[in-house]
């Protein structure tokens, strides 16, 4: 299986990349190093099953990246996680966490990617209580339209 992992240079992302490679999968790691560290991926420099792409999910040509690497599954772990920045600049937070996620989901759908995960089970905080477990299979991408009556009310 070929997987794309966004947020690959973060703690959870790099751990997932290591696990996927150990299980014999090919991995394309994607990160912009906003909060991730290059040191989390340095040990993979000579691994032929790993390709790293430095890109931002908000501004990068995600369709071109997906077309080039053709992942079968996308693990989306990229996020703006700095609470202070979220409070100071909520629009930036929404840009990364909402717009970036939608752009990635749309690019994955257009590229014919079969599955997408935003939070593998192994990354949940409760996983440490149960010991090491393999992530559950991801659900297929399903884009549904939310009816207007379920839209959040606007405050002025």
TrEMBL record:
Matches recorded under PANTHER family: DTDP-D-GLUCOSE 4,6-DEHYDRATASE-RELATED (PTHR43000)
Domain NAD(P)-binding, residue spans: 4-117
Annotated protein name in UniProt: Polysaccharide biosynthesis family protein
UniProt feature, compositional bias: Low complexity: 116-129
Top-level taxon in the UniProt lineage: Bacteria
Chain intervals with Basic residues compositional bias: 130-145
Amino acid composition bias (Basic and acidic residues), ranges on this chain: 146-156
Stretches for region Disordered: 116-156
InterPro entries per UniProt: NAD(P)-bd_dom, NAD(P)-bd_dom_sf
